[in-house]
Design a protein that fits this description.
The protein is mainly β. It has 2 domains: about 190 residues, Beta-galactosidase, Chain A, domain 5; about 130 residues, Beta-galactosidase, Chain A, domain 5, CATH 2.70.98. It contains 3 helices and 28 strands. The radius of gyration is 19 Å and the shape is globular. It starts with a helix and ends with a strand. It binds alpha-D-galactopyranose. The site of alpha-D-galactopyranose has 9 residues, from strand 25.
Length: about 350
C-alpha cells in the first residue's frame, strides 16, 4: 500500500491559466500539492513540469527544476525544459527507419539526425487535461495524427502524473496506434537539487544502476556495442560527484561534451527497477528514480550557455541542470540487438517512471 491509500489528506490540485500560445490556444496550469511540502506545476503545453518544489533538510520547499515563468519563453527557445518527449525520445540516425520493408524519413533537427520527436514534438503540442482528484493525478492526452512529424499511425497517448504524500511523482505513459509504428516516450526535466539555479550541478552525488553504457559515434548515434562501465568515467555504480571525472580525457566524454549518454540498466527482469539517484549534500535532497524502462540518459546540461533566462533573475549557465531521462536505447529502430520500440495495432505501449524525493 502506498501513502495514497494509507493517509487521508488528499492531494490538492488547483487549475489556472498559464498563458496563450502564439496560435491563440489557452494553456492551463495545474498545481498539485501534497501534505509534505511538495508542489508540482504542470502545463498543458508540452506536458511541461514548470516547477517542482521539494523540501530541503530544514523543511524549506524550493524549486528544483529548470524552466520558465512565461509561456512565451517556452515558445521562443527551450532545450526541452521539463517536457514530455515523443514520439521518440533521443536520436534516430539520419531520421531514417523502416517497418516491414517500408521506409520512413523523419526530419533531421539535430545535425544529420532526428532528435526528441522532431520539429514539433510532444514537447510543443497542447495536451488535453483531466484532473483525477480521487488519486491525486493529472491525466494528459494527445492524439498524434498519422504521419505527424513523419511517424506512421494515429498514436493516441496518455500521460498520468501522480503525486503522492510520500513525495513521489510518478509518470505513467500509455499509447495505442492504428498502424505499426515506433514509440519511445520520456520526461525531460532538468534538476538542480540545490534549489539555486546559479550553481552548477557538478557537486551532486549520482549513482546509476548499470554495468554497461552505450558508446556513441561523433554524431551521438550508438555504435551498436554496449560497453562495460568498469574503469571508465561512466561507472556510477558507487555514488560519485557528477563532476569527479566529467572533464577527464575520454573520447566518449569529448563526443558528448560531458555526459550525454544512455546507460543499460541492471535488473531488467524486474517490472520496476532502481535506475539512478542524485544527492545534493548542502540541501540534503535526495532524488531516486525508478522505472520500467531499460535505459536512462544522463545529460549534464552541456549545451546550457547562459543565454536562456532562469526563474531566479539570472540565466541558465553551463551545467546548471542535469536530466535523467528513462527510455529505450537511442536509435533502436536501426539497431537489431536493442530492445524493440515497435508498437503494433492492438497492443498498448506502457511505461512508468517514479521520481522519489527524500532527505539524506
Ligand atoms: C538530450 C540530448 C542532448 C540534448 C538535450 C537537450 O538529452 O541527448 O544531446 O539535445 O537533450 O539539449
Amino acid at each position: 500500500m502506498n501513502s495514497k491509500q494509507t493517509k487521508n489528506t488528499p492531494i490538492t490540485i488547483l487549475e489556472d491559466v498559464f498563458g496563450t500560445t502564439k496560435d491563440g490556444v489557452t494553456v492551463k496550469r495545474f498545481k498539485m500539492n501534497n501534505e509534505n511540502g511538495m508542489e508540482v506545476s504542470i502545463i498543458t503545453y508540452g506536458g511541461i513540469i514548470t516547477s517542482l518544489k521539494v523540501p530541503n533538510k530544514n523543511n524549506v520547499s524550493e524549486d528544483v527544476v529548470l524552466g520558465y515563468d512565461l509561456l512565451s519563453d517556452y515558445e521562443k527557445s527551450t532545450p526541452y525544459f521539463g517536457a514530455l518527449i515523443g514520439r521518440y525520445g533521443n536520436r534516430i540516425a539520419k531520421g531514417n527507419f523502416s517497418i516491414d520493408g517500408k521506409e520512413y524519413t523523419l526530419q533531421a533537427n539535430d545535425g544529420p539526425n532526428h532528435l526528441h520527436g522532431g520539429v514539433k514534438g510532444f514537447d510543443k503540442v497542447v495536451w488535453s487535461a483531466e484532473v483525477l482528484n480521487d488519486v491525486g493525478a493529472l491525466k494528459l492526452s494527445y492524439l498524434s495524427k498519422d504521419m505527424e512529424e513523419g511517424y506512421p499511425g494515429n498514436l493516441h497517448t496518455e500521460v498520468i502524473y501522480t503525486l503522492t504524500n510520500d513525495n513521489v511523482l510518478e509518470v505513467f505513459y500509455q499509447a495505442t496506434t492504428d498502424k505499426k509504428t515506433i514509440v519511445n516516450l520520456t520526461q525531460h526535466s532538468y534538476f538542480n537539487l540545490s534549489g539555486d539555479f546559479s550553481k552548477p550541478i557538478l557537486d551532486h552525488i549520482v549513482s546509476i544502476n548499470a554495468n554497461k553504457f552505450i558508446p556513441v559515434d561523433a554524431n551521438l548515434i550508438p555504435t551498436g556495442k554496449l560497453k562495460d562501465v568498469a574503469n571508465t568515467p561512466f561507472d556510477f555504480r558507487e555514488p560519485k560527484k557528477i563532476g569527479q571525472e566529467i572533464n577527464i580525457e575520454h573520447e566518449q566524454l569529448k563526443r558528448g561534451l560531458g555526459y550525454d549518454h544512455c546507460w543499460v540498466l541492471n535488473d531488467q527482469n524486474q517490472a520496476m527497477r532502481f535506475t539512478a539517484s542524485a544527492h545534493e549534500p548542502n540541501s540534503g535532497r535526495l532524488l531516486e528514480v525508478f522505472s520500467s524502462e531499460p535505459g536512462i540518459q544522463l545529460y549534464t546540461g552541456n549545451f546550457l550557455d547562459g543565454t536562456l533566462p532562469n526563474k531566479q533573475g539570472g540565466t541558465y549557465a553551463y551545467r546548471t541542470g542535469f536530466c535523467l531521462e528513462t527510455q529505450h536505447y537511442p536509435d533502436s529502430p536501426n539497431q537489431k540487438e536493442f530492445p524493440s520500440t515497435i508498437l503494433k495495432p492492438g497492443e498498448v505501449y506502457s511505461s512508468k517512471t517514479s521520481f522519489k524525493f527524500s532527505i539524506k
